[in-house]
Write a structure and sequence with these properties.
Layout (H helix, E strand, L loop, with lengths): L1 E4 L7 H16 L6 E4 L6 H9 L3 E3 L12 E4 L6 H9 L3 E4 L3 H15 L3 E5 L5 H7 L7 E3 L13 E6 L5 H11 L5 E4 L5 H14 L4 E5 L5 H11 L4 E5 L15 E6 L5 H13 L13
Parallel strand pairs: 1-12, 2-3, 2-4, 4-5, 6-7, 6-8, 8-9, 10-11, 10-12
Helix pairs in contact: 4-5, 7-8
Length: about 290
């Protein structure tokens, strides 16, 4: 049995940056009041648990704070709506911004489009925190579309400006824009899909097409990991989405020769390595094939 790991698997630049900011802030501001994020800083439960052991709490609402004033809030990698940031500032909370630079670009492009008088369309998941942060920076409501079949959400507009959730497949953006061409007289599009996301999707698809079993490793609350899982399913091989090596089942690999492994942009390397080691241990003595690593 041969085990291959996709070249682009695991942490992207934005996640690495956010975690460094979070760990540094947790150490720097210890004793200066509560240190917290509003929602998980990234969508990986194991990493969030490690940060909690460092003293970085996760809360769902600013009203959940025992002391409603003071402390340090680390802005999650997905960003936060402007109204939330303003509320935190009014409460005297110190803000440490760990928003991914690519998410920040999507926020700025959406604001630019709104300022130029375009009706803003965000291609993405309506309840995803990144999309909420993009829409939450605008003075007028944006229309969020998961796909071209949701065109009826948008009132008939002459001028439409489009941005995209950074973890969306390029096909979703193209499909929405193509449908908008049937309705709008003028369309301005910013492709705000993160290059790292695009590369992970291409790498995962290439690997899934040549293996018998594909393992997609990452948080179940991670949009980019779920997207990898769904894309790999389109190739027809057996695909399993797991968070940790403990979820592996030996029967998945019975009679299989090629095993592929990839990880979402918020999946740490140590979890990917654990999965590789666990898969290798399922091989019968003497049957171990040569492992392919990036």
């Amino acid at each position: 049995m041969r085990v291959s790991v996709a070249p682009c698997a695991g942490f992207c630049f934005g996640v690495k940056r956010a975690l460094k900011i979070a760990f540094d802030a947790a150490h720097k501001h210890t004793g200066d009041g509560p240190i917290f994020t509003l929602g998980p800083i990234i969508h990986n439960p194991q990493v969030v648990a490690r940060l909690e052991r460092e003293g970085l709490a996760v809360i769902d609402n600013l009203d959940d704070l025992e002391n409603p004033r003071g402390g340090t809030m680390i802005v999650r990698s997905h960003g936060l709506p402007r109204s939330v940031l303003e509320d935190a500032s009014r409460r005297g909370i110190r803000l440490v911004d760990a928003t991914c630079p690519f998410v920040k670009e999507a926020q700025e492009r959406a604001e630019q489009l709104a300022g130029e008088g375009y009706a803003v369309v965000i291609v993405g998941e309506e309840d995803h925190p990144e999309v909420l942060s993009i829409a939450g920076g605008l003075s007028s409501p944006a229309t969020v579309m998961a796909g071209p079949n949701e065109l009826d959400k948008l009132p008939r507009e002459t001028r439409v400006g489009v941005v995209c959730q950074t973890t969306q497949p390029i096909g979703h953006l193209i499909a929405v824009v193509n449908r908008l061409l049937e309705q709008a007289k003028e369309i301005k599009v910013f492709n705000t899909i993160c290059r790292a996301t695009f590369e992970r999707q291409i790498n995962a698809l290439e690997l899934a097409r040549r293996v018998d079993v594909m393992l997609v490793v990452g948080g179940r609350n991670s949009a980019n990991t779920r997207r990898l899982w769904k894309l790999c399913q389109e190739t027809g091989c057996d695909v399993y989405h797991i968070e940790t090596a403990e979820e592996l089942k030996p029967e998945w690999f019975e009679g299989k020769e090629e095993i592929g492994i990839t990880g979402g942009a918020s999946t740490p390397q140590w979890i990917v390595d654990d999965v590789v080691s666990a898969v290798e241990e399922t091989q019968a003595p003497g049957d171990a094939g040569e492992e392919s690593r990036p």
